[in-house]
UniProtKB/TrEMBL annotation:
This is Fe2OG dioxygenase domain-containing protein. PROSITE patterns: FE2OG_OXY. The keyword Ribonucleoprotein does not apply. It comes from the Eukaryota. Belongs to the iron/ascorbate-dependent oxidoreductase family.
Length: 314
């Protein structure tokens, strides 16, 4: 087992308008599909029709413009959670990736503040498109979260969870490796999020690790999103869902752009009592997710699930 990469065998769940009405039988069966996919694969693709494809195409053009800004402008994006969202560029360990993003997207000023930092005389087209994109992807995240809570029979706790939930959005530019470079990309890792929702332009290079240890190249159908479980979902679900181990491997050719919505919680996360029983004894203590983010930055040597287990495992 190991590094061989397989074709896409990830479930694709159709979030058609008729599947998104809570209480209907198609909503309930979609919730079950989400839970089954997470427990089996830790991730799944969503075919989502609500975001116009013109908006998605326009966002990827805007990202090209953003990353074409001078480095001295991009480095100004310093945030509270820098390892995740502050500007990272051309590190010797990952020379092919540049990334940066917007934190606290629930804040109505967040997109404008970021835009004005990057373009001191403003950029209406970026801020308007990004505001709309961010709202659409945040709505999608809320649906996914509600489905997860419902699928575990704890829908009553969803609204209080949602009141303290927040998101960051990160933009990634992966350039192809040069002749003298190793295959570039991002080393394998799990995200410290509750869920991460990824969209990309059509350049395949993201891979996720399957249960049998092989790597699966993720082929995104047009306008689709990949939902990956983060370490916080692993803990909340009391170990039922594993966090997705993923990596990016670029090959010579085109540049890849991606967006990643990171969802997190501002308060304490605890395993719902409904998810603890004799067959599933409590595995995780209540924990503060922002504290967990800080913990991961100062404990780089820990990988995969060992991070969350070291932070709040019983
Ligand atoms: O670019 C991607 O698809 C994923 C990058 C990644 O792993 C991350 O932003 O955490
Ligand atoms: Fe990641």
């Amino acid at each position: 087992m190991g590094s061989e990469t397989k074709a896409n065998i990830l479930p694709i769940i159709h979030f058609a308008v008729e599947n998104l009405k809570p209480g209907t039988s198609s909503w309930l069966s979609t919730c079950k599909n989400v839970r089954d996919a997470l427990e089996e694969h830790s991730c799944f693709l969503i075919q989502y029709e609500k975001i116009p494809s013109e908006l998605i195409n326009a966002i990827f053009l805007q990202l090209e413009e953003l990353f074409n800004l001078p480095t001295e402008t991009k480095v100004q994006n310093i945030t509270k959670t820098d390892g995740l969202i502050g500007y990272v560029g051309k590190r010797p360990s990952n020379p092919t990736i540049e990334s940066m993003g917007i934190e606290d997207v629930i804040n109505p000023e967040a997109v404008l503040k970021f835009t004005n930092l990057m373009w001191s005389s403003g950029n209406d087209s970026f801020s308007e498109l990004m505001e709309s994109y961010k709202n659409h992807v945040s709505d999608l995240e809320k649906v996914v979260m509600r489905m997860i809570f419902e699928s575990y029979g704890v829908e009553k706790s969803y609204s209080s969870y949602n009141e303290s939930s927040n998101r960051m959005i990160r933009f990634n530019k992966h350039r192809p490796p040069q002749l003298n470079e190793n295959i570039g990309g991002v080393h394998e890792h799990t995200d410290p999020t509750f869920v991460t929702i990824i969209q990309q332009n059509q350049v395949t290079s993201l891979e996720v690790k399957s249960k049998d240890g092989s790597w699966i190249a993720v082929h995104f159908p047009p306008s689709s999103f990949l939902v990956m479980a983060g370490d916080a979902l692993l803990a909340w679900s009391n170990g039922r869902v594993h966090s997705t181990l993923h990596r990016v491997r670029m090959s010579p050719g085109e540049t890849r752009f991606s967006t990643a919505l990171f969802s997190y919680h501002n308060g304490t996360i605890q395993v719902p009592k409904e998810l603890v029983d004799d067959d599933h004894p409590l595995q995780f203590k209540p924990f503060d997710q922002l504290g967990f983010f800080r913990f991961t930055f100062s404990n780089f040597s820990l990988n995969d699930e060992s991070k969350i287990r070291a932070y709040c495992g019983v």
